[in-house]
Structure formats: structure tokens, C-alpha cells
Amino acid sequence: MRAAVMHSFGSPLSLETVPDPVAAPDGAVVKVLATGVCRSDWHGWVGHDPSIVLPHVPGHELCGEVVSVGSEVHGITVGDRVTVPFCCGCGVCEPCRTGETQVCERDIQPGFTIWGSFAELVALPRADLNLVRVPPELSSVDAASLGCRFMTAWAALHVHARVQAGEWVAVHGCGGVGLAAVMIAVAAGAQVIAVDIDERKLARARELGAVAAVSSDVVETIVDLTGGGAHVSLDALGSTVTCVNSVTCLRRRGRHAQVGLLLGDQAAPQVPMGRVIARELQVLGVHGMAVRHYDGMLRAVAAGSVRPGELVAKTIGLDEVSAEVESMGSFAQEGVTVVVPT
Which cofactor does it need (predicted)? Predict the structure, then answer.
């Protein structure tokens, strides 16, 4: 098969022919029909993830067709069109046994701990637990746009922050996950304030239903617009500035969801814990979404209340993926880029 292989951190990926993967007894091999390019891929490419062993194939936001399954797989069959969370569960640790596969103690991550989907084929573990069938009304490109960005935004708002109609939601950073959060919050009936320094991204957030767009004096502006602060705020970027702004812009008893990864020189934000205590704020970490929550998200997609495909800005081939990953470092993307390998 063809795959985009990383031989050293920060160097261009090499498009190569490598051996086809083989399904584990409990796993499956999937033909990649579409796979997103995510800033998490950039973090791995520059060396922020110590779990990556070189040589390595990145990629984790995929939709594909099952081409083989192991002897222990009974619920997934050849020909199924599937997607998968970026954190796959082992099925036996305590979090997995309670349904929280997204925080599995063994933390199996395609594109990070194992080879990923910037390839024509990808081997995935524990197929009966981790693979999610894609409904026929959702195209493969649109399905690839679900995760990790869309499904993480869904989990942040619906599973963790439990957003309610009429609440004020601030979204800090309007890349792929931020725009997904805008769309999801608007669909939930919330009033959304989009925050970014890129006016093009703010314009896109307004098109998706944000009632206000903020690029400076962030905390003061949000507090003024909302009459006291946001009920829910997401750091969808992952920086020391956006994290602190997200916490500080909340009203009393507000909920902050940390979605963007805080790595490298952005790893230690000075979160105002005195304010968290005095105002009884909730600080919520979001590490993807458990498999058990996919049904609710996919039903919302099928009903048309959210439209992840509208976030796809362009599609590219495998030969373009290296340059696309590198460009993530400068936040060049508007919306979601999806790779179609063949």
C-alpha cells in the first residue's frame, strides 16, 4: 500500500510503498476512503507526542471500508463503512468497562501509538468495541470531518459542559474544532461568541450562526456582551492565552472546556485558580469522545441539525499531505482539510 511515512520529526513525510497491514485476531483492516488533517497531526509531526516511534504513519480522522477482520470479531463485517474515535479502548481496563473508552488506560491511538490513516489501509484494534458504522446518508468525506475535531467539540458541549438553549457560549479559536463548536452550540440554541485574530475565520463563524465575533479585548468584550460572562467557554486552540481567557471570561458557576492541546511551550498556562474557587467555576478536560456517545451525534447529523460536511474546505491527495501537515503550524487552514487517498 501507499503511505505517508515520517522518518524524522519536523521533516517532510515520504510517500512510500509499505507492506499491507494484517488484522489482529480482535481487529480489522480498513481501506481508507477519506481522512482529515488535524493540528494534532502537526503536534505529532514536530515531536510533541512521546508515544510516537519512528518510522511512523500519522493520521487519525478517518472513514473507510472494512476489508478484513480477525477471527475474534463478530459485530463488524467486511464491507462495513466505518469511522473510529482517535482514542480506541482496550475493553478491559476500568474506564473501558464503565464506557469511558476515550480515557482508556492503554490509550491506543491510530496515528500516534500505532500507524494511522495517511495511507491506503489502516489496521484498527478491538473492532467490535471501537469501530462505528457510518450511516449511508453521510458521505465518506463528511464522515472523516467528524473526528477528532467535530466529535471532540460535540463531547465538550453535550457530554461535559451540558450546554443549554439560551446560554452564552464563547469559542476561543475558530479552526476546525472551533468552527465545529460554533455549529454545535448554535444548533443547541445557545448564543455563540467567536474569538480569533483571523477575520476570515470570524466571518465563517458568523456564517455558522455566531452572534458576535471578537478579536481583541477578549475577556472585557465577552463579559460586556453577555451581561456578566459566558455560561460555557471552550479553548479550542490550545495556548496559554486562550486557556486563561476562556476561564476568565466565565460568569459565576460557568464551565470551561479545554479542547485544544496544551503542548510544547504552551504546556503550562497560569490558570487563575483563585477565581475558579471564588466563582465555583468548572474546569473540564476533553479527550475526544467515548464510543457510546456516537449514536446521539450521528442521529443529529442524520436529522440535519448539524452539518459537519459544511466545515470541509478542501480535499487533497496523499501526495499533498506532508505540506498540509506542515502548514498547520501557521494556522493556515480555514475549516477542515480531508485527504482522499485514491
Answer: Zn(2+)
